[in-house]
Amino acid sequence: MPVDVMKTDIEIAQEARMKPIVEIAQAIGLEPDDLELYGKYKAKVTFEAIERLKDRPDGKLVLVTAITPTPAGEGKTTTTVGLGQALWKLGKKAIIALREPSLGPSFGIKGGAAGGGYSQVVPMEDINLHFTGDIHAITTANNLLSAMIDNHLQQGNALGLDPRQISWTRCVDLNDRALRNIVVGLGGKADGIPRQDSFKITVASEVMAILCLATDLADLKERLGRIIVGYTYDGRTITARDLKADGSMALLLKDAIKPNLVQTLENTPAFVHGGPFANIAHGTNSVTATRLAMKLSDYVITEAGFGADLGAEKFINIVSRLAGYKPAAGVVVATVRALKMHGGVAKEDLKTPNVDAVVKGFANLEKHVQNVRSWGLPAVVAVNKFPTDTKEEVEAVVRLCREAGVPVAMSDVFARGGDGGVELAEVLMDVVEGAALQAPNFTYDLDLPVQQKIGLIARQVYGAADVEFTKEAERDIKRIVKLGLDKMPICIAKTQYSFSDDPSRLGRPENFTVTVRDVRPSAGAGFLVALTGEIMTMPGLPKVPAAEAIDIDPSGKIVGLF
Question: How many C-beta neighbours within 10 Å does residue 488 have?
Answer without folding.
Answer: 18
